[in-house]
Amino acid sequence: MTMDHSLLVLGGARSGKSRYAQARAEATGLDRCFIATAQAFDDEMRDRITRHQQDRDALWHTVEAPMALADAIRANAAPGRVLLIDCLTLWTSNLLLADRDIDAATDDLVAAIAAAPGPIILVANEVGLGIVPDNALARRFRDAAGLLNQRVAATVREVQFLAAGLPLTLKGAAPLAQPGATG
């Protein structure tokens, strides 16, 4: 299945979004580059990163970009290569905790996505479906993540929302065969 456009995959925790995004990338048959935004600050996160790495075969090239995401896109996007960025939510958290200008970084990211000469698949959590957080930092994070998702969704050609492992097309055409679908 060829893919010549950008895709945002949204969903909650354990919704299947990363697995879906990886399957879509692998289905392209293109050279694969995984751009990771996670930072291993504790054992649980190290284990989570290791599990994600083990899910990818040797055909994947991995780039670590916990904050310089737009630069990583510009350096690695190419015709004949699909980029998989996982995930924008962790990237937002990294910027917030480092007291970086999230609006400027988002502008730079959106420009990099729009200018990319090959397909990009971006993964992000939808964090705005729950209750309003009880502290200012959590509300600031929720708002920043929601605004980032809106900006990226407006930029990409396709948006899929995953719930219980099932994709729902929010924007663009769904693929003819859903990667990982059973039945």
Automatic annotation (TrEMBL):
Its EC number is 2.7.1.156, 2.7.7.62. Pathway: Cofactor biosynthesis; adenosylcobalamin biosynthesis; adenosylcobalamin from cob(II)yrinate a,c-diamide: step 6/7; Cofactor biosynthesis; adenosylcobalamin biosynthesis; adenosylcobalamin from cob(II)yrinate a,c-diamide: step 5/7. InterPro entries: CobU/CobP (IPR003203), P-loop_NTPase (IPR027417). Pfam families: CobU. It catalyses: adenosylcob(III)inamide + GTP = adenosylcob(III)inamide phosphate + GDP + H(+); adenosylcob(III)inamide phosphate + GTP + H(+) = adenosylcob(III)inamide-GDP + diphosphate; adenosylcob(III)inamide + ATP = adenosylcob(III)inamide phosphate + ADP + H(+). The keyword Membrane does not apply. Keywords: ATP-binding, Cobalamin biosynthesis, GTP-binding, Kinase, Nucleotide-binding, Nucleotidyltransferase, Transferase. Coiled coil: none annotated. One of its GO terms (molecular function) is cobinamide phosphate guanylyltransferase activity. It comes from the Bacteria. Belongs to the CobU/CobP family. Catalyzes ATP-dependent phosphorylation of adenosylcobinamide and addition of GMP to adenosylcobinamide phosphate. This is Bifunctional adenosylcobalamin biosynthesis protein. The lineage of its organism: Bacteria, Pseudomonadati, Pseudomonadota, Alphaproteobacteria, Sphingomonadales.
